[in-house]
Amino acid sequence: MIQGGDPLTKDPSREASWGTGDPGYKIKAEFNEHHHDRGVVSMARSNDPDSAGSQFFICHGNPRFLDRQYTAFGKLIKGDDVLEKIATTPTRPGDRPVKRMGIESIKIVAADSVK
Q1: For residue 97, what are the β-bridge partners?
Q2: Which of the residues 29, 36, 72, 81 could staple to 66 if both were Cys, CB 3.0 to 4.6 A apart?
Q3: Rounded CA separation 8/31 (Å)
Q4: pLDDT tens for residues 66-111?
Q5: Both ends of the chain: CA-CA distance in Å?
Q6: What Rg do the C-alpha atoms of the chain give, in angstroms?
């Protein structure tokens, strides 16, 4: 999987804290029956189920063990090639990419608009 949404990653001097940032509030878990399959977007959290904030992850594989334990809320409908490129980029310790990755644009569409 790939993970994003930590506001601390905007500051290279805070690298030791990357992966721990949040927007200053927590979102209550909304577990559901959506499976964690490739391309599913889900909320990242700590051990506390109600600790999600701004961080999210996109499944690169099919981590079904996450089903009903993390809030799945979206799915890629285009860009699987980008997911593959990011997920297979070289990393260093801590699974941090050697080269900074960033999202340039996202388009959110209603589920009923997808054919």
Answers
A1: 91
A2: 36
A3: 26
A4: 999 999 999 999 999 999 999 999 999 888 899 888 888 888 888 8
A5: 25
A6: 14
* 19 Rama class: left (phi>0) / alpha (psi -120 to 50) / beta: left
| Contact (Cβ atoms closer than 8 angstroms) between residue 45 and residue 51 | yes
Query: What is the extent of the structural domain holding 31?
Result: 2-113
| Contact yes or no for 72/42 (Cβ under 8 A) | yes
**Tally of structural domains, the chain:** 1
CATH number for the domain spanning 23: value is: 2.40.100.10
